[in-house]
Specification:
Shape of chain A: globular
Number of strands of chain B: 12
Oligomer: heterodimer
Strand content of chain B: 35-45%
Distance between the termini of chain B: 37 Å
Number of domains of chain A: 1
Order of helices and strands of chain A: HHHEHHE
Distance between the termini of chain A: 17 Å
Number of strands of chain A: 2
Number of helices of chain A: 5
Number of helices of chain B: 12
Largest interface: A-B, 58 and 82 residues
C-alpha cells in the first residue's frame, strides 16, 4: 500500500497515533517512523509484557477505527483478527507506521471507500 | 591496476543490483546508489572483492570478512533494508512475511571485547483466536499462539542477551474501557475533516497548528481509562545460542496494563484524573516536569502507570544445567515477576527557552521530550537447596534504565543478568537515535 493521504486507512492510522500520543510527526514524515519510537515502548522489556502493552494499544486502535472513523471490518476479518494483526506489528520495534497502516487497510473498510469487495 | 580495481568495484555493485532488481522502479523506498557504493567500499576494504592471490582463494576467510562487514552500522542498516524491501516482498517468500529478521551489532562493553555482528529474529503466529462476551469487559478473547525470538551473535561471548525463547501460549485477554462510545455524527464529520486537513502539514507546521489542538480536544474528550489483563499458560523451550544450556518451562502467567487515557494530557493537579492521582511512581517525575516548566503544575500522568507481569512455572533442565555442578539435577519450580515504566520528565525545548537562547528553534526539533524508562525482572527458584543458593543460582535480577528522547541522544544502564547470561554485567550505553 502506498503511504498517501488519499487513502483513508493511512490518515486513520496516523491520526489515531497522534490522538493516542504515540507519534507526533507530520503525516508525510510518519511513513517510516518505527514502532520502537512509540511512547508505549519500554527499552529492555520482556516479550510477554510488551505483548500485553501492544494488545492494549491495538484494542484502543480498534476502538478508534470503529467509534471515531465509523469503519467496519473487511470481509474475512473480524475484531480478534484485526486486533491480533495490529498487535503483531506493534510488538516489533523495526516495523513502521506504514506497515501498521497496511494491516489497518487490510482489516477495516472505511466509509469513504467505494466498495469492500 | 587502478582500472582493474574499478572494474571489480563495478562488478560488486552490479552483483548487489542483481539481487535487488526493482530499484529503478522503486527509487523512493530503496537504498540509494551512494549507499550501495558505501557497501561496495566496505566489501572492498574487507577484501571481498579482491582477486585471489597466489595460493589463496578469495573466500578463504569469508566468515571473518562477513563479520567485519556486519560490524559496520551503515552496512547493517542497508542490508536490513534490502532484506525488508526486496527479499520479503509480497510476490515471493510470503511465508517469511511474519518473521522479523534483522542483522545487528552486539557490544559487550565491560571487557573491551570488539563488536560482533549477528542477527535477531522474531516470529509470532496466532494459531487460533476467538472473541466472546464477558460481563464487565468491552473485549475478551481466547488466543492460541506460537512465538520464537532471540539474538544470535557470531561470537557468542559478546552476546549480552543470550536467550532464545520458543513457545506455545494459550491465553485469555480482557479489556475494559478505552472510549466512551461512538462519536456523534457531527463530531465524526469534524474529526474526518480535521485529520484530513492536518495530514497536509509538515511536522513543524503541525506542532503549532490550532487545528491540531482542536482535533486533540475533540478526540480525547471521548477517551476513558482502560484496564487490560491477560491470563495464560505456556510451554516454552529456552536455550542459549549455542544450545549448551537448554530447558523446558511449563507455567502460567498474569499480565496487567492500566492506561489512564482520560485527560492524560492534563498539566495541573486539578485537571488530572482520579486514576492519575494514584500513580505514586510518577510523583518524583511530576515534580521535575513542574520545576522545568514542562507542566504548569504538579500533574502525575495516568497514561504512565507501571505495567506488570508475574508467572509461576516448572523448569525442566535438559542439558548443562549449572545447578548440576552443585549436586542438583532435578526439575524445579520458579516464580518470576516484571515491572516496567516510562514517563516524560523534561521538554528540552522548554529548558532551552529558560536558558534565554533563541538559537534554538532548530534544536527543539532534535532534542524533543526526554523520557525516563525502566524495566525490572526478577526470577526465583522455590525451595532451592543451600548449595544452589550459595552459588547464586537461585535468584536473578535484571534491570534496564534509559534516559533519552525517542529520536535523539540517550543514556542506558543495564545491571544484573537473565538466567542464561554468562556474566553479571553493568553495561552503560550512550548513543544517538536517528529517524531514517
Amino acid at each position: 500500500m502506498k503511504w498517501t493521504n488519499n487513502n483513508r486507512a493511512c490518515v486513520a492510522t496516523w491520526s489515531a497515533l497522534l490522538v493516542l500520543d504515540q507519534n507526533s510527526e507530520g503525516f508525510a514524515e510518519s511513513e517510516n517512523v518505527k514502532i520502537g519510537t512509540f511512547k508505549f515502548w519500554v527499552k529492555g522489556e520482556s516479550g510477554e509484557l510488551r505483548k500485553s502493552r501492544a494488545m492494549q494499544l491495538a484494542t484502543m486502535l480498534d476502538n478508534i477505527m470503529q467509534n471515531f472513523e465509523f469503519a467496519k471490518y473487511e470481509e474475512g476479518s473480524d475484531k480478534p483478527g484485526a486486533i491480533n494483526a495490529m498487535c503483531g506489528v506493534l510488538t516489533e520495534d523495526a516495523k513502521t507506521i506504514a506497515e501498521l497502516g497496511d494491516v489497518i487497510d487490510d482489516n477495516y473498510f472505511f466509509p469513504s471507500e467505494k466498495t469492500n469487495a | 591496476m587502478r582500472s582493474a580495481r574499478s572494474a571489480r568495484r563495478i562488478l560488486v555493485l552490479f552483483s548487489l543490483l542483481a539481487v535487488t532488481p526493482v530499484y529503478a522502479g522503486d527509487a523512493e523506498e530503496s537504498p540509494t546508489f551512494g549507499e550501495l557504493l558505501q557497501v561496495t567500499n566496505l566489501l572492498d576494504n574487507a577484501g571481498m572483492s579482491r582477486p585471489a592471490e597466489a595460493g589463496k582463494p578469495t573466500l578463504l576467510n569469508v566468515d571473518k570478512q562477513v563479520k567485519k562487514i556486519l560490524s559496520d552500522p551503515v552496512a547493517v542498516d542497508i542490508i536490513n533494508r534490502v532484506i525488508k524491501k526486496e527479499v520479503l516482498r509480497d510476490d515471493g517468500w510470503l511465508f517469511l512475511r511474519d518473521i522479523d529478521f534483522k542483522f545487528k551489532i552486539f557490544d559487550a562493553t565491560d571487557d573491551g571485547t570488539p563488536l560482533s555482528g549477528g542477527f535477531a529474529y522474531a516470529y509470532e503466529k496466532d494459531i487460533r483466536d476467538h472473541e466472546f462476551q464477558v460481563k464487565g469487559l468491552d473485549y475478551a478473547d481466547l488466543d492460541l499462539s506460537f512465538s520464537s525470538r532471540g539474538n544470535v551473535a557470531f561470537d557468542s561471548d559478546v552476546n549480552p542477551e543470550d536467550f532464545l525463547d520458543t513457545k506455545i501460549n494459550f491465553g485469555f485477554y480482557g479489556s475494559h474501557g478505552g472510549t466512551r462510545g461512538p462519536m456523534t455524527p457531527e463530531d465524526h464529520e469534524r474529526y474526518i475533516t480535521l485529520t484530513q486537513e492536518l495530514s497536509n502539514l509538515s511536522t513543524a507546521e503541525l506542532r503549532t497548528s490550532p487545528k491540531k489542538q482542536e482535533l486533540l480536544k475533540l478526540a480525547r474528550s471521548y477517551l476513558t481509562n482502560q484496564v487490560g489483563f491477560d491470563l495464560g499458560g505456556k510451554v516454552a523451550f529456552e536455550t542459549d545460542q549455542t544450545f549448551s544450556h537448554r530447558q523446558m518451562v511449563y507455567g502460567g502467567e498474569l499480565g496487567l496494563v492500566v492506561s489512564g487515557w482520560e485527560r492524560f494530557d492534563a498539566t495541573t493537579w486539578n485537571e488530572t484524573s482520579t486514576l492519575a492521582k494514584f500513580n505514586l511512581v510518577d510523583y518524583p517525575f511530576a515534580v521535575i516536569r513542574w520545576a522545568t516548566g514542562f507542566d504548569q503544575g504538579f500533574a502525575p500522568r495516568g497514561l504512565n502507570f507501571p505495567a506488570g507481569r508475574t508467572g509461576i512455572g516448572l523448569v525442566d533442565p535438559q542439558n548443562d544445567d549449572p545447578r548440576a555442578a552443585f549436586g542438583d539435577h532435578s526439575s524445579f519450580p520458579r516464580v518470576d515477576a516484571e515491572v516496567s515504566f516510562r514517563t516524560p520528565v523534561v521538554d528540552a525545548s522548554n529548558l532551552l527557552h529558560l536558558s534565554g537562547g533563541n538559537l534554538l528553534d532548530n534544536l527543539k526539533l532534535i532534542l524533543d521530550v526526554i523520557y525516563v524508562s525502566a524495566d525490572y525482572r526478577y526470577y526465583r527458584e522455590i525451595g532451592a537447596s543451600n548449595a544452589v543458593k550459595s552459588a547464586n543460582l537461585a535468584e536473578f535480577n535484571y534491570v534496564v534504565a534509559t534516559v533519552g528522547s525517542t529520536s535523539g541522544p540517550f543514556f542506558s544502564y543495564l545491571d544484573g543478568h537473565l538466567p542464561f547470561d554468562r556474566t553479571s554485567d553493568q553495561i552503560y550505553e550512550v548513543g544517538y537515535k536517528f529517524h531514517f
